[in-house]
Design goal:
Strand order of the largest sheet: 1-6-7-5
Number of domains: 2
CATH architecture of the largest domain: Orthogonal Bundle
Helix content: 10-25%
Radius of gyration: 20 Å
DNA sequence: ACGAGAACCTGTTTGC
DNA sequence: TGCAAACAGGTTCTCG
């Protein structure tokens, strides 16, 4: 899936197409994704105007003009594709939802693995919604800094890599940017989370912020599934220091280590055992 | 209560 | 060549 930079890239691509537009037609092509669509989903959304497109962690939130909020998560393989006005493309395999707007544009949600989801809440209930209530702030929110991060890691005996993937500790970071931020801050992914404090936290927090901002500026990373809403590819994958770079030299100046791949919590981790301690 | 591992689902790549 | 296993950007449940 898209991590925070990819979701933010999608949000920015959808905004000019959807913001201010009435959703004149909504086509829901299967009853469920990771979770069932809400009962009466199409009827609740059709005819509503989209007033804002927001992102919370890796969730896209569409504000509707009647106080509803459409919650969307892209899972591992979800894509949002903007179709040009007037195009009458037949649905493709794994196109699950098609939104058509009053000006004739269309947005397609496609997700072949179906780890994504779409559901509804309201502005009033959003803060307590089960999918959103336990999300920690993301690293681009103003409260995020080294002190905030070490507070969140306090007492955690899981490896720091796993802690960075825990959306209750900090949100928005996924498997790629966790490895990247740890290499930039020269911290071993195997180090216990609680030991990342002080000088280490002071390196890690800005490394996370920087890698996310750089990835957003590049339009995200395009590996297998991710596309911008426009269909264009992001290009941050060309800037990976360690992710998917097993056997390559570590980019840390004067390090000369070799990038290794290990498995933690069933996920690949890429790191340099020489400079990352 | 916490942490590790499996499960969810489909598609593509890798290895024998 | 062909088939099976491994792997893929996430989240959530179960088990110890």
């Amino acid at each position: 899936m898209p991590e925070l930079p990819e979701v933010e890239t999608v949000r920015r691509g959808l905004e000019p197409v959807l913001k201010g537009q009435v959703l004149t037609h909504v086509e829901q092509r299967r009853p469920d994704l990771r979770i069932p669509f809400p009962t009466g989903f199409v009827g609740l959304v059709e005819g509503r105007r989209v007033t804002q497109l927001r992102r919370k962690a890796k969730y896209l939130l569409f504000d509707l003009d009647d106080g509803q909020v459409l919650i969307c998560h892209l899972g591992m393989s979800g894509r949002m594709t903007v179709l040009p006005c007037g195009s009458n493309q037949p649905p493709e395999r794994h196109d699950h939802v098609v939104f058509t707007t009053e000006d004739g544009g269309a947005v397609v949600f496609n997700d072949h693995r179906r780890f994504g989801l779409m559901t509804l809440t309201t502005r009033d209930d959003e803060a307590t919604h089960p999918l959103l209530v336990n999300l920690a702030p993301d690293p681009l929110e103003p409260v995020f800094d080294a002190a905030h991060l070490s507070e969140r890691l306090k007492g955690k005996r899981t490896p720091i890599k796993a802690a960075l993937l825990d959306q209750r500790v900090l949100s928005g970071v996924g498997n790629i940017y966790a490895s990247e931020a740890l290499n930039r801050s020269r911290i071993s992914p195997r180090r216990l989370a609680q030991s990342v404090a002080g000088a280490r936290a002071a390196r890690l927090a800005p490394a996370i912020v920087d890698v996310l901002n750089e990835a957003i500026a590049a339009g995200g990373s395009s590996l297998r599934d991710h596309r911008q809403a426009s269909g264009e590819l992001g290009y941050f994958q060309h800037s990976f220091r360690v992710y998917d770079q097993e056997g390559e030299p570590c980019p840390t100046p004067d390090c000369h280590g070799i990038i290794r791949r290990i498995v933690q919590a069933n996920r690949s981790t890429f790191f340099c055992g020489r400079c990352q301690r």
